[in-house]
Amino acid sequence: MAGRVDGKVAFITGAARGQGRSHALRLAQEGADIIAVDIAGSIPGMDRFYPGATQDDLDETVARVEALDRRIVAIKADVRDFTALKDALDSGVAELGHLDVVSANAGVFQFGDKTEDVSDEDWDTVNDINAKGVWHTAKAAIPHLKQQGTGGSIVLTSSTAGIMGTPNVAAYTASKHAVVGIMKTLALELAPFSIRVNSVHPTGVNTQMIRNEATYRLFLPDTPHPTDEQAEEVFRTTNALPIPWVEPVDISNAVLFLASDEARYVTGLQLKVDAGYTLK
Amino acid sequence: MAGQLEGRVAFVTGAARGQGRSHALRLAQEGADIIAIDIAAQIDTVPYPMSNPGDLAETAKQIEALDRRVVTRIADVRDRDALQAAFDAGVAELGAPTIVSANAGIAPMSLHPKAQEWQDVIDVNLTGVYNTVEVSKQAMIDTGKGGAYVLTSSTAGLAGIGGNTPGGIGYTAAKHGVVGLMRTYANTLAQYSIRVNTVHPTGVNTPMVVNDAMQEFLQSDPAMGQAMANALPVPMVEAVDISNAIVFLVSDAGRYITGVTLPVDAGFLNKR
User: Fold this and answer.
1) Is A92 a domain residue?
2) Engineered SS bond to A104: which of A2, A134, A258, B57, CB 3.0-4.6 Å?
3) Mutate to test the interface with B, among A195, A203, A267 (most CBs of B within 10 A)
4) Which residues of A touch B258 (CB under 8 A)?
5) ipTM of predicted assembly, 2 dp
6) CA-CA distance, B158 to B144, in Å (whole number)?
7) Looking at the complex, does the CB of residue A190 fall below 8 Å from at least one CB of chain B?
8) Do B256 and A274 touch (CB under 8 A)?
9) Which CATH number goes with the domain that contains A39?
């Protein structure tokens, strides 16, 4: 049985763990080879929220893709550094032969400060990774896709915070709205080349980015040490469907649909995978 | 390889041909049994030939060729009682559906507009969708398994296109109304893990669009011609492209997707 993205090559940022690793595995399960990048290191300003991915995490992604009998090129690179990112992608394409799918997934989550209290450093960290990094990812990939002349699918990871306002999460919310602007513009620019561009908008996803005490306190400000159970209860109230959060594979399935030929005429779409979060 | 919808039952309206037949077949290919209904008759204000009983029988034949079970009934989505009876007959034979495609729709647009078009298109395209959900929702809730509705809207459900005739205005209003139905039902049915989404096709290569009356109508008004221009370099999409979006939404791959307006529009809406 042929996979749904058989023979395609997918470039994924933030692929060491969490959603990015899940995307790599899901696409590989359906026949794609993978070019994986990740910063695989600690990011100044982020440690007070949650720990960064590691080289071991990236190695684990490689091992699991290879266990699926797909090829993977994994390179440590920071999406804020365009030259490094482009070099990583170029060497991946040189090795795997072409490029068909792009998942601009790398992102960080900071929160808690009132907008007037956000520091310049924090603002820049979040927006440089979540917005500028997405632009860099597209900028590095587009010349390959155009030159091949075989179309392509670019999926940008936004958030429910790319659709709605979120109090005390200004930098992240701004960065995820910026992703939508990039998506809509690229969808227009690239349509004549049959390159499709869409965004995905997850509600809370069961990854380290939200499964940590700092994030729990955003929802339970009066509880010094919120438990998993308390967090689950309050997260559940944010969604329409009776679940606290979705799993990484749910976002991967949406990315897979958009990456596949099943969605060959879908472009310019903000695809919510949000259990009704934005609807309530 | 098991299909993505093995063991499930799907209720599809407007299933005799066009998008509805394509949805029924794609869902069946993925393992679902099908309750297929269609009016299989003409509505006076519709300027192109509508489906007939032979079309519905052909859909059934093609589903059976896939080794899936099918129950067909001729029913008008405007007639709640007839629709309920058709639905109940399907449930009696196949069990209750956890998938519903509210697809039946008409496009009464032509160069010879009639006042009655407004009422007919509102009745079929909006009230018919409401009736489709109403006749099926309790049975789906009672399965205790959750489920998924996909309501077929249009690019004209998110943009003010459709032209300046009673039928065109009504089409646009009805397709916008379908989004309101979707959002309301998505909220009220979420507690049962029943998801509700809309699809928004651009022009699709089916008898509703590819007929002399519609082409004459579109060409009569440059603004309307423009209204059909996609961003991707394709004039129309195929019915299977809408079906693929529906399979994604109703399958477990979409288990946490609800309240979404999903355009399959070759970038049409983003261009506006």
Assistant:
1) yes
2) A134
3) A267
4) 240-241, 275-276, 279
5) 0.90
6) 33
7) no
8) yes
9) 3.40.50.720
Q: How far is CA A205 from CA A22, A245, A250, B87, in A?
A: 12, 5, 9, 37
Per-residue model confidence as pLDDT tens digits over B10-36 = 999 999 999 999 999 999 999 999 999
Interchain proximity B270–A184, CB inside 8 Å: yes
What pTM value is reported for the model? 0.94
**Domain count for chain A:** 1
Start-end of H helices in B95-165: 116-122, 128-143
Q: Does the annotation mark B171 as catalytic?
A: yes
Q: Which string of DSSP letters, residue by residue, matches A102-146?
A: EEE--------S-GGG--HHHHHHHHIIIIIHHHHHHHHHHHHHH
Kindly state the tokens that stand for B182.
């979707």
Q: Residue A69 sits in which domain range?
A: 9-210+245-272
pLDDT tens for each residue of A241-252? 999 999 999 999
**Other Cβ atoms within 10 Å of A56 Cβ, number:** 10
Residues in chain B: 272
Q: Which residue has the tokens 């394409």?
A: A93
Q: Does a structural domain hold residue A120?
A: yes
